[in-house]
Amino acid sequence: MTEHFADKLLAAIDAKGSPVCVGIDPVYDRLPEHVRKGQTSPDAQCEVVMRFCREVINAVAPIVPAVKLQSAYFEQLGDSGTGLYFLLAQHARNKGLIVIGDVKRNDIGSTAEAYAAGHLLRADAPDAITVNGYLGADGITPFIDAAKKTGKGVFVLVRTSNASAATLQDIADANGVRLFEHVANMVAELGDDATVGKRGYSLIGAVVGATWPDEARRLRELMPNQLFLVPGYGAQGASAADCAASFKADGTGAIVNASRSVLYPAADKRYADNRWPQAVAAAAQAFADDIAGALKP
Question: For position 251, what pLDDT does the model report?
Fold first, then answer.
């Protein structure tokens, strides 16, 4: 039987001791200078990005349970970059990591089915992906159907971490129910009993930004069976205490992502004496320890 994504992720979190995820967002101009070596052609830059990302994955694999590959940074490299996205997903799995593909796809009908096949059904696809929930249920169900077939996961954008999220997501109806709460209710309904694993969590999770802790606590009430993928820690300004708002009282129910603060630690004086792969590992460990500490009773 195909392993259930939520059960698999929770087991990996238990094994590593902290519910954290490192985002792989390779910005070429921010890579260490000795890694870049002045490459200018797309193919050469893709090769550099591959080496960098493999080193990052190798460095964090003993520390964190999961990585999140942001597809945009690979797609901008062309066909080679798109292939690299899937190659890195496989490399991360070979290192024992859960892989989340941050693709934020959404559409309806046969187009959504094609997106779902391309990102969930192929053999080298990640263990879970992100999707945009703001087209309504018919924009999500093809991804959910694919997840049910494979045991993989889907994280639906519910409350995003960006500063302008409230402009639209806080719009309320006549009864005072905000738009993001309507989306949460839809996600909770779609993540019904048929999608729930042995540990009580659904294959259908939610993206909930750490930069909105009060809203996260409300969303935890509305979506008790959903795993939350929590961006916003570190470079976006959210603290470990802010992230803790997305968890249940028993310390389960969410995984926190950090990208820039782990990938590019050179500016942090704490890691000045480390070579870059060791600095990445040290930054990942500090991140994991910070989140674990915030969840202690």
Answer: 95
Distance between terminal CA atoms of the chain? 36
Helix (H) / strand (E) containing 156: strand 153-159
CA distance 158 to 40: 38
Dist CA 289 CA 240 (whole Å): 10
User: Does 287 score more than 50 pLDDT?
Assistant: yes
pLDDT in tens, 101-128: 999 999 998 999 999 999 999 999 999 9
Which residues are catalytic, by number? 104
Q: Which residues of 251-280 are buried (b: 16+ CB within 10 A; e: fewer)?
A: bbbbbbbbbbbbbbbeeeeebeebebeebb
- 112, HSE (Cβ side, Cα atoms, 13 Å): 20
Supply the DSSP string of 53-76, one letter for each residue.
HHHHHHHHTTT-SEEEEEHHHHHT
- The distance from CA 61 to its chain's CA centroid, rounded to whole angstroms, is 16
Neighbouring C-beta atoms of residue 148, cutoff 10 Å: 15
Q: Please report the pLDDT score of residue 193 as a whole number.
A: 87
79, 230, 207, 221: CA torsion to nearest 10: 170
Contact 265, 280 (CB under 8 A): yes
> Does 37 have pLDDT greater than 80?
no
**In CATH, which superfamily holds the domain spanning 8-294?**
Aldolase class I (3.20.20.70)
Of the candidates 62, 43, 3, the one whose C-alpha atom is nearest the C-alpha of residue 277 is: 62
Three-state secondary structure along 233-277?
A: EHHHCECHHHHHCCCCCCCCCEEEEECHHHHCHHHCHHHCCCCHH
